[in-house]
Structures
1.
Amino acid sequence: MLKTTAAITAVGGYVPEFRLTNAILETLVDTNDEWIQSRTGIAERRILKGEGLATSDMAVPAVLEICKKRGIDPLEIDCVICGTVTPDMVFPSTANIVCDKIGATNAWGFDLSAACSGFLFSLTTGAALIESGRYKKVIVIGADKMSAIVDYTDRSTCIIFGDGAGAVLLEPATDGSGVLDSILKSDGSGKDFLHMKAGGSLKPASAETVAAKEHYIFQDGQPVFKAAVKGMADTSYELLQRNNLTGDDIAWLVPHQANKRIIDATANRMGLATEKVMLNIQKFGNTTAGTIPLCLWEWEKQLHKGDLIVLAAFGGGFTWGATLIQWGYNTE
Ligand SMILES: CC(C)(COP(=O)(O)OP(=O)(O)OC[C@H]1O[C@@H](n2cnc3c(N)ncnc32)[C@H](O)[C@@H]1OP(=O)(O)O)[C@@H](O)C(=O)NCCC(=O)NCCS
């Protein structure tokens, strides 16, 4: 019997209209376009503006686009997994809220917290549900409204992050396409360098925590940078080795978009030409769990059945890893 794999059968995405350019950031903090572009590769990010709008409001259009493209009713969806660190609320899960908003009343779902590796961890989890044979249609979302937790007076973080959402549909396949292998890692000692200090059970929200700006991202950039370069490059290289592949066999690298210098280091280690690296950091910045599915969304028309693709991420936790997929369809 042929092995059942979890194939990506459709991709959806959403980025908000508002463009937060480097020129605007120059008016908010002591920074400049030249520094931001040369140190990170980012020119602008999208920001979700408007009262009452949250992460689910970006995830919903991404999932509805998938339903339209694949010609399915939300009632057919079995499960929704949402990778996010900016859920609409601490509970219920954003996945549940998305299901309610799109009428996916037959689905169960949950959020997965792995910061910038949120999509990668969710994809492997969703793939396991498909491979188990119990579920036929699993939606995997990566979505973050980072502007909700960015301090726009902190120049070391506000230049990096943006808002956005991407999603894929996983379905069973027996033609060899789908999620083939993953190396996923986490190391909780990394929490010292990238975290949010308050709002959890350790330090519940209070007037003091708000006054001390403890509901924003804290990042010590240099150690994160070093760990990201090593983590993303090492796991991507190891993934190639254990599947007897070289950079020549890979059609695309889909890296988490945190910093162009981290992406370049990963591509170099894999022996990949720059034309094979998906890069949209200049337009969207770091949308945390959104980066990888947003790349797949933007590049969908250039992906061909049979393409071997490596997805790679590094994020808060620390969490990191790389996943090998074989693309399962051509877009007309
Ligand atoms: C944040 C990051 C871009 C900073 O770049 P860096 O090259 O490490 O910069 P440093 O923090 O060493 O700062 C270098 C100098 O630039 C200054 N600087 C920092 N931010 C600046 C900004 N926005 N504009 C202008 N100057 C800035 C610093 O004050 C420092 O000045 P000094 O040398 O006079 O002290 C980089 O560390 C990074 O990308 N880290 C990983 C981020 C990441 O991946 N996070 C998400 C997890 S996936």
2.
Amino acid sequence: MRSAEPPLKQCLYTVINSFMKATLLCCGLALLACHLLAQSPTTAPAAHTSQSGLDLSAIDQTAGPCVDFYQYACGNWLKENPIPPDRATWGRFDELEERNLRQLRQIAEDSAAHQDRSAIDQKIGAFYASCMDEAGIEKRGLDPLRPGLERIAKIRSKPELTAGIAWLHQHGAEPFFAFHASPDPTKSTLYLMDLDQGGLGLPDRDYYLKTDEKSEEIRQKYLAHVARMFELTGVPEADAQHKAAAVLKLETALAELSLDNVSRRNPQRLFHKYKLDDTAKLTSSVELRTFFTLVGAPAFSELNVDVPAFFEGFDALIAATPLGELKDYLAWSYISANAELLTKAIVDENFNFYDKTLTGITQLPPRWKRCVEATDAQLGDALGQKFVEKTFGEEGKQRTLELVGQIERAMAADIDSLPWMSDETKRQALIKLKAVTNKVGYPNKWRDYSSVTVVNGDYFGNYGRAEDFEFKRQLAKIGKPVDRVEWDMTPPTVNAYYDPQQNNINFPAGILQPPFYSNQADWAVNEGGIGSVIGHELTHGFDDEGRQFDATGNLRDWWREKDAEAFQKREECFVNEYEAFSPVPGVHLNGELTLGENTADNGGLRLAYMALMNSLAMASRPSTKLDGYTTEQRFFLGFGQVWCQNSREEELRMAAQTDTHSPPRFRVNGTVSNMPQFSQAFGCKQGDPMFAEPPKACRVW
Ligand SMILES: [Zn+2]
């Protein structure tokens, strides 16, 4: 509950963090998702023993590439790489993250042992050491939680709720709703206050509303979890069960007021500018004007309200709920938000529900991993700075920019050649493409944490002060110009993203590594890996969501109506294709929810293929065989092998409901089966499952 999901950022991959539940809701949100990788641009990892850089041992020669390409590219890898007990998935992304965690552990431990060496060492070292101090945390018990619980107990009447909710938002919890500084949808150079639905303890609104057996079962387990958490804070059992029931009832009411996640993918549905004074018409139960003053927001007169109907329902909800139950809900949100900072019994119970039940992880990750991730989450630029100093050079940045340039040129040629788009819309699309800015590696300017007091032996306090620093930093942006050089992911993150409101693509140092990219790998394998990632992010500017923003990041329709219709018709093809995929028996993918990512996967691979063909033509290089594969085959294998991943059934179920990305198997098979170039490369025939049959094969870009 600690962080709001930024509704518009589109990233490559959804991070399943093993213990920080907020990350279950979003993709790679930098402040919480710390996914890092030991990086050494000049050394290829041991898996790359082939000439081409492909992992030949991963290939399942008994599978036919035209029957199930994913199985062919990854089958042996899947067999040889079971999921470790402390993870929900185990794939090539996870491998990099794991390596990286170990590297960051060394940095953190070194800082902890040399806190007097520099200001940065003091911050990182004391933070990490205070997290590792389990005995001290155990000794303090529930003490850190008491001031917050007392603050909630002091609420004597419903009019006092506003101040109580404000206090909680200032202290790491997010009851009832979410808010953050976000670029103004129609004036993307300025930050605007954005007020959004929120306040749920389960990953999505549908978890409260669906009536199937599995959903019922999860709700029962959630109820038991909430009750146990109350008990662990000293509430008698019977009372705890009453409180849990009140929490579930109230959250269900919030879920009913919430907009569903498919509708939320349409930015127009989230765009409602209000005068601050007029928010009183939405709800009088929570005085929003007073609320924003109390949390310390700078003065502002206008804001965006993502889902007005959500707030319009508050008055009836609060009138119908006894004050005691509202306070139970506030207490729950506070306890849950802080669970990972408390005693072992609370950490374990939190893990049992959010990880074991929801994602199938069987074992709590070792303390050091959780502490490295917490340090990255709270002091990411300090840790990231040390990481970059050790690992990432100017050379890697230059090579990546070169690759980005190639993919951008391919996209320009692709747009030019589209049969379904008018010249006028093409001209606009090319203007937008040209305006994309590229951020590679790490920020030019590091965040200064000197005002954050970090002391040994006070993990709860350290975490809270770092959180408070970030909370104030975000609030201070309201009304100020958008800082376009700021990053939303920490440098070692194994991920990438497109920001439609800034029209930029972002590739942290963490992903510029094998199997995505290697100096030693041949060009075809690199294009299939990092090339398709770059193409994926670029395509996001032109998917069903991204296309609604113009070159400057404003929400403005630049499409001719007929072109928009043609676009939508082509998108329907993807919706139907992916809707048919079933990751777990009885569960199907949501074609609308995953539409933007599927569009990006398909566009990305096509652009990378075009870039490969261009570079082959320019170098007058014919297609050559390496490791027994042609250039084209190596390209597709390079793409497929990036996505080798085992996933737990629970995780696949959750992802089908909440994740905008399709599971890896379908990211690969769904995409290649739309490309005639793939069929050609592997000699697939009509009737083969992977055969790309025009006009049945889907294509937008
Ligand atoms: Zn994406």
